[in-house]
Write a structure and sequence with these properties.
The protein has no helices and 31 strands. By secondary structure, it is an all-beta fold. The two termini are 32 Å apart.
């Protein structure tokens, strides 16, 4: 199933100026989804393979209207979309709402929120001689489910979270490939009756070896937390490294975290701050624990995607229809609006951003893009 992007792509140029800075950007819509057999409404970001092809998921569409895994490949400046797999919503899963991982062999990994045992699964796509084949590596069942996106460490171990299950408030799980196949282990279970983290809705970030970091929208003072999971001789141990207080401090962090080269953590809250529209925060480790600093308060709630660093140390995030840049300057951060979407070129950004070696930015929008309003894949060239 192939569709060329020529009939759907829209090239739109913008020169954007704000009171805080200038970002000259050219946006090109590489592909607009129709919510037909090609998929629709992507809710996650993209990844590259070694050849420069883009891969992602759509939450609906495909042959069975249960979502797809797709590839975008470029030839002579034209991007072509190929559906690699259409989910049926049954034993193979359905409704993939998170992004993908790729291993050294080019195999793809992801999660679905439906299908399998009705609570979602972890899947792998392997390239065959004539088509890609899907393998369910683990099916969530019972009360456990709604898995997040996955993270892979340098040892090719896979980590993620579930919003449900465990002791009632979700889990952190790990998967490792053995001689007999993939094995899943619950590393930590959140307790719905305690004051600790509850119901994680994003994946974990891998820090130094045997350290995982994530957020929960509930728990702590009732406004959400940042947690650290550390492997010790007694197994995996969890501790809250920050509890949000609401108000200016921020609350309800739905998105994941990103680390800089010094091990500092960066994330967002969906409310609180100057305008009660959320915050961008930094957590830096000190001798006495972790110190939190609000580095930006947007005028619209940030998306649920994790922030992204470029090669120069600039930090990028998204609101509903805006991409912003935070650049370090004089001990603080300067904000610049990179792009404002107008609907025809996309709307509702949820998936996070990636960069190629030339510094071009790529992402998806859940809506917008022509008459179908089923989302787009875009490129922004500085």
């Amino acid at each position: 199933m192939r569709k060329t992007a020529l009939s759907l792509a829209i090239a739109i140029s913008f020169v954007l100026m704000t009171t805080n800075g200038v970002w000259a950007a050219t946006e090109q819509v590489l592909y607009s989804f129709t919510d037909g057999s090609d998929g629709g409404y992507p809710m996650a970001g993209l990844i590259f393979d070694a050849a420069g092809n883009l891969y992602g998921t759509t939450s609906s569409g495909g042959v069975y209207d249960q979502g797809t895994v797709f590839e975008l490949s470029q030839s002579n400046g034209t991007w072509t979309e190929t559906v690699l797999y259409s989910f049926t919503g049954g034993a193979d899963g359905g409704y993939p709402a998170s992004g993908l991982l790729i291993d050294k062999a080019g195999n793809l990994y992801g999660t679905t929120q439906r299908g399998c045992d009705e609570m979602g699964c972890v899947f792998e796509l392997r390239r065959g001689k004539t088509r890609w084949q899907e393998f369910v590596l683990y099916s969530f069942s019972g009360s456990s489910g709604n898995p997040s996106g996955l993270t892979m460490d340098k040892a090719d171990r896979v980590f993620g979270t579930t919003e449900l299950g465990g002791d009632g408030a979700g889990t952190i799980f790990g998967m490792q490939h053995t001689e007999t196949g993939w094995q899943e282990s619950t590393l930590y279970s959140f307790n719905e009756n305690g004051d600790g983290p509850q119901n994680p809705q994003s994946g974990v970030a891998v820090g130094s070896p045997e350290h995982l970091y994530g957020t929960t929208p509930n728990g702590g003072y009732g406004r959400g937390t940042v947690f650290e999971l550390t492997y010790t001789k007694r197994g995996w141990q969890e501790q809250i490294i920050y509890s949000f207080e609401g108000g200016y401090d921020g609350s309800t962090p739905y998105g994941g975290l990103v680390l800089d080269s010094a091990g500092n953590l960066y994330g967002t809250t969906s409310s609180g701050g100057d305008y009660n529209q959320g915050t961008v925060f930094e957590l830096s480790r000190s001798q006495h624990g972790w110190t939190k600093t609000i580095i930006y308060t947007p005028s619209a709630p940030p998306s649920n995607a994790a922030l992204t660093f470029d090669q120069f140390g600039n930090l990028y995030g998204e609101t509903y229809d805006t991409i912003f840049e935070l650049s370090p300057a004089n001990g603080g951060w300067n904000e610049t609006t990179v792009l404002e979407f107008d609907g025809t070129d996309g709307q509702s950004i949820n998936g996070g951003l990636i960069f190629d070696q030339a510094g071009n930015m790529y992402g998806t929008t859940q809506n917008g893009g022509g008459v179908f309003n089923a989302g787009v894949v875009f490129e922004i060239t500085p």
